[in-house]
């Protein structure tokens, strides 16, 4: 059997778990190379806790380089910038190219930028919650400036779980230390739509109690110094953190891969590209064409097991297996004050014990990996 080259683009949840499995059971007759812009990848489930000061960065970052070493894989620091899927070549920044037999893409997603938004727009800073490293460094810089600012209006754009958690966590971190800071949570539609009413109500009460101003049904457009709602009213803000729905990074445009209308990779049930069966995609970057499901970490985690089996089966000349998305998933929202709320379908639970439960689950996940973080 000839040795096959498997290139892993990006070290998201699915690839981190794949590497974890390879430590236990290496792939037969294959050399595996991981390409990642950073040695460390964040576990976003713990990001609100990190913002709130409940965790340190090294507790919620997986050390990919060390994970690769343990799994006998090559780690290459670099950003995938171009894919030529017809000729099976992946290029990274700096010009290095990798010819592969199989490629697996797990490069995650970024928050959508509403039309007209760019960095430091019209006197207002606009920053995405992802990439996480960039967001954390912005937050640290902000904390240096806040002691001399008499007021600072901080907006979080996005009324989903991530937006609510980030707004509560920022309030927890900043508002007591810096009394001039006010927090706003803004978005189109209603708060936590798709979640049970009890969850919406609970989070609404938290926002009121913590003096976070909620602006619903705001189709935000950018105006000097803030955001304007559809009725011409301006919410004056000094900075806005984007926690909007997921969009792909643009590097796969022109790759020849079949992409959906947003630019995510269209895959079959075996997580293989519809156009190029030697390419897999997992996590947020993949759209399962037969049964699209939400872009969330719990699905990325479930993709890992199918990806591992299918790479193994291909190497052994066996048939691939199908991924079946779970119909319901557990959502646990960190209120950043020692409490959390959880929902699975219509069942909801809340309180301090729910935070401890979430903490236990997150620790259990992270214990599988070597951890670390360096700026
Ligand atoms: C604040 C917040 C809280 C969240 N909480 C939860 C939660 O509790 N539960 C949940 O299920 N989901 C949660 N999510 C959603 C979750 O973050 C994503 O669904 C999940 O991270 C997707 O995982 P992934 O494996 O696709 O990629 P990610 O884990 O996002 O990793 C992508 C990796 O690819 C790398 N990369 C990016 N571009 C390139 C490139 N061009 N070349 C090489 N590497 C690249 C990145 O550096 C990163 O290491 C949360 C999101 C946010 C913003």
**Structural class determined from secondary elements:** alpha/beta
Distance between the termini: 43 Å
* Count of helical stretches: 8
CATH superfamily of the largest domain: FAD/NAD(P)-binding domain
Largest sheet: 5 strands, parallel
Pfam families: Pyr_redox_2
Cofactor: FAD
Protein name: FAD-dependent oxidoreductase
Domain FAD/NAD(P)-binding: 6-304
Written description of the protein model:
The model has no long low-confidence stretch (mean pLDDT 94). α1 (13-24) packs parallel to α3 and α1 (13-24) packs across α7 (297-315). With 375 residues, this protein is an alpha/beta fold. 40% of the residues are buried. Helices cover 27% and strands 26% of the residues. It starts with a strand and ends in a 9-residue tail after the last helix. The longest helix is centred in the last third of the chain and has 19 residues, at 297-315. The structure holds flavin-adenine dinucleotide (FAD). This is FAD-dependent oxidoreductase. InterPro entries: FAD/NAD-bd_sf (IPR036188), FAD/NAD-binding_dom (IPR023753), NADH-Q_oxidoreductase (IPR051169), Pyridine_nucleo_diS_OxRdtase_N (IPR017584). Keywords: FAD, Flavoprotein, Oxidoreductase.
Throw out a few tags for this protein.
375 residues; alpha/beta; FAD/NAD(P)-binding domain; 2 domains; five-stranded parallel beta sheet; 8 helices; 26% strand; binds flavin-adenine dinucleotide
Topology diagram in text:
Elements: E1 4-9, H1 13-24, E2 30-36, E3 40-42, H2 47-51, E4 61-63, H3 64-71, E5 74-77, E6 80-84, E7 89-92, E8 97-99, E9 102-105, E10 110-111, E11 125-128, H4 132-145, E12 152-157, H5 161-174, E13 181-186, H6 197-209, E14 213-215, E15 221-223, E16 226-228, E17 234-236, E18 239-242, E19 246-247, E20 265-267, E21 279-281, E22 286-288, H7 297-315, E23 331-334, E24 340-344, E25 347-351, H8 352-366
Parallel strand pairs: 1-2, 1-9, 2-5, 9-21, 11-18, 12-13, 12-18, 13-14, 20-22
Antiparallel strand pairs: 3-4, 6-7, 7-8, 10-19, 15-16, 16-17, 23-24, 24-25
Helix pairs in contact: 1-3, 1-7
Flavin-adenine dinucleotide (FAD) binds next to helix 1, strand 2, helix 2, helix 5 and helix 7.
Domain FAD/NAD(P)-binding: 6-304
Keywords: FAD, Flavoprotein, Oxidoreductase
Cofactor: FAD
């Amino acid at each position: 059997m000839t040795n096959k080259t498997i290139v892993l683009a990006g070290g998201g949840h699915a690839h981190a778990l794949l590497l974890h499995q390879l430590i236990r059971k290496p792939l037969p007759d294959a050399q595996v190379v991981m390409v990642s812009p950073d040695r460390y990848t964040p576990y976003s489930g713990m990001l609100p806790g990190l913002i709130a000061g409940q965790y340190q960065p090294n507790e919620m970052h997986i050390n990919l380089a060390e994970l690769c070493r343990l799994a006998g894989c090559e780690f290459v620091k670099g950003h995938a910038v171009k894919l030529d899927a017809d000729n099976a070549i992946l290029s990274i920044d700096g010009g290095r190219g990798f010819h592969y037999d199989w490629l697996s893409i797990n490069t995650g997603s970024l928050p959508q930028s509403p039309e007209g938004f760019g960095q430091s727009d019209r006197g207002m800073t606009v920053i995405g919650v992802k990439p996480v490293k960039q967001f954390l460094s912005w937050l640290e810089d902000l904390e240096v400036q806040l002691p001399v600012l008499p007021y600072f209006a901080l907006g979080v754009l996005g009324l989903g779980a991530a937006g609510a958690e980030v707004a509560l966590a920022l309030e927890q971190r900043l508002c007591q230390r810096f009394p001039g800071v006010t927090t706003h949570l803004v978005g189109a539609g209603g708060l936590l739509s798709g979640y049970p009413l009890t969850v919406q109500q609970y989070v609404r009460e938290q926002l009121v109690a913590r003096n976070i101003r909620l602006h619903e049904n705001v189709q935000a457009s950018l105006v000097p110094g803030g955001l304007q709602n559809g009725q011409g009213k301006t919410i004056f803000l000094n900075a806005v953190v984007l926690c909007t729905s997921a969009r792909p990074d643009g590097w796969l445009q022109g790759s020849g891969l079949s992409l959906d209308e947003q630019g995510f990779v269209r895959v079959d049930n075996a997580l293989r590209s519809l156009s190029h069966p030697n390419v897999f995609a997992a996590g947020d970057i993949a759209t399962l064409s037969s049964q699209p499901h939400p872009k969330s970490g719990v699905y990325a985690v479930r993709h890992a097991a199918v990806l591992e089996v299918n790479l193994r089966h291909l190497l052994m000349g066996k048939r691939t297996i199908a991924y079946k998305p779970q119909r319901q998933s557990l959502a646990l929202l960190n209120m950043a004050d020692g409490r959390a709320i959880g929902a699975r379908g219509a069942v909801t639970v809340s309180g301090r014990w729910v935070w401890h439960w979430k903490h236990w689950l997150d620790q259990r996940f992270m214990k599988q990996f070597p951890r670390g973080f360096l700026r």
